[in-house]
Structure formats: structure tokens, C-alpha cells
Amino acid sequence: HKVGAVATKNITSTRLRSERTTQVDEDAENKRKEHQKELAAKKQKEGLARFSEATGDKNGAEVKKFKRFESYKRDNQLPLKVKNLEVVVDSRNSTVILPIMGRPVPFHINTIKNASKSDENDFSFLRINFLSPGQGVGRKDDQPFEDASAHFVRSLTFRSSDGERYSEIATQISNMKRDAVKKEQEKKDLEDVIEQDKLIEIRNRRPAVLDNVYIRPAMEGKRVPGK
């Protein structure tokens, strides 16, 4: 009597079912680790691309890069009120237009530090301070400049007998500056946010929930289960 051959696919390297299960778990864990390495390399590449605008010093510290701000591409985009050669606040383009030497000169809000109004005798004065190198050592004063050794206009002062209008202009500039700082901060906060896929509503089955979940301390003295 001849014994039939045994198929090689039925031969296992282990005898116990638990040992085979452990082997499968190890293979899955190794695949998971390899996938995590791929994801880490991908995120690192994306991070380097996202922060490529910033440069670093020899110690690896982040150094801010000079940024250009453009208020208008053409002269005909300026508000019509600039023909009167007066101070004009253009909130839509985040710009303050000042009359200098008989010409309207636009200044982006990111080049302005602050604005204030004061009164002296029968006149009111509007003082606009600009950002320039060497103004301070705080975090807000470390804005880089294209050429820090160049000459800078640190402030301009205008005089008028209409104090109410200068008060309104100073308030508009302050509000515009506040909104610009807030927008820049929100932009920085979103740099580390990971984009996620759109949520898909579950329609054909009951959504997964955690039953018998309680809030501690109980609201209004009642122990009410939630989901």
C-alpha cells in the first residue's frame, strides 16, 4: 500500500493555532510600522515645502524672511478721493493713502506701526508711525527689512482744523492694523492644521455610539446618561 503525497500548502511551520496567530499579528505589526515610516517621511517632506519661505541661521533658529506688500497694480485702482490730496483710508485694500509733495502715496497697513490724533490750540494733528529697523527688541519689532541700512521715514504728521475727521481716521487705521495682525496670526495657526477628508453621513445603518456615558459632576444635580 502506497502512502499518498501531502500537499505542501497544508504544511505549516508551527503546530499550534496560537503560534500561527502570533505570526500573523507580527506580520501586520511590521506592515503597520513600515506604513508609519512612509507617512512620517511624507509629512516631513510636506513640512519642509510649507516652511521653505523661512530661512534659518547657523544655530537652526527660524529667521523671518522679508515680505513685499502690494496695494495696487495700477494707478487707476486708487480711490477717486485721492484727487483731493487728503488722507484716505482704503480698508478694502488694507492701505492708507497719504498726500506727499502733491501726490497720493499708498502705504500698506503692514508698513504702519500705529496712528494717533492730538489737539493743540485750534488745530488737530494726525501722527502716523511706520515700522523701521531698531525700534525695539520685542517679538513684534523683529520684522525683517529688505535693506536695514537704508533711510526710513519713521513718522508723518498732518495738521487740520477738522478734529473729528482725524479722530475717525486714527480709529480706522487702528482697527485695520488690529485686523491685519489677527489675520496674520490666524494664518500662522493654520499652518500646522492637517487637512482631512470630507465627512460622509451614515445613512444605511445606526451610527456607532458609546452608551451609558455620564457627565461628572452631574448637570443640575441629575445623573442623565448621554451619547
UniProtKB/TrEMBL annotation:
Residues 16-48 have a biased composition (Basic and acidic residues). GO terms for cellular component: FACT complex. Its main location: nucleus. GO terms for biological process: DNA repair; DNA replication; transcription elongation by RNA polymerase II. Keywords: Chromosome, DNA damage, DNA repair, DNA replication, Nucleus, Transcription, Transcription regulation. Residues 1-54 are annotated as: Disordered. GO terms for molecular function: nucleosome binding. InterPro entries: FACT_SPT16_M, Spt16. Transmembrane segments: none annotated. The keyword Nucleus applies. Residues 87-227 form the FACT complex subunit SPT16 middle domain. It holds the Pfam family SPT16. PANTHER family: CDC68 RELATED (PTHR13980), FACT COMPLEX SUBUNIT SPT16 (PTHR13980:SF15). Belongs to the peptidase M24 family. SPT16 subfamily. Component of the FACT complex. Component of the FACT complex, a general chromatin factor that acts to reorganize nucleosomes. The FACT complex is involved in multiple processes that require DNA as a template such as mRNA elongation, DNA replication and DNA repair. During transcription elongation the FACT complex acts as a histone chaperone that both destabilizes and restores nucleosomal structure. This is FACT complex subunit. It comes from Photinus pyralis.
